[in-house]
Write a structure and sequence with these properties.
Largest sheet: none
Number of helices: 2
Distance between the termini: 75 Å
Strand content: under 5%
Number of strands: 0
Order of helices and strands: HH
Length: 114
Amino acid sequence: MEVQAHLREVNHALSRMLDGLSKAEGELPEAVSYRIQSQAVIAALEAEEVMRVAKEQADTLLAEAKKEAQEVAEEARLEFGLLNAESEAEDLRKERLEQAEREARVTRRRHGGG
């Protein structure tokens, strides 16, 4: 999914940033190091929020897709039922027509017409 790919990129970028901080930490004055660590924490919190929002959006989209699929399935069942009823009506019409033709032949034979 597009959201998952974006989240992987954010996670990867944060990992690289934290790795860089770990390497540079010994070389920087304590105040600068603290500021960078604070920014890393803020970035991590923002990434968590992005992931939370993305999950909520994905859950919402999934729920909407499930609802739509159920509606489509119901329409298909109704359509199939209608087609099935039409088919059965056509079969019954054919049976009645054949029955009427048989009766007509029998009647003609009895009355010497055929």
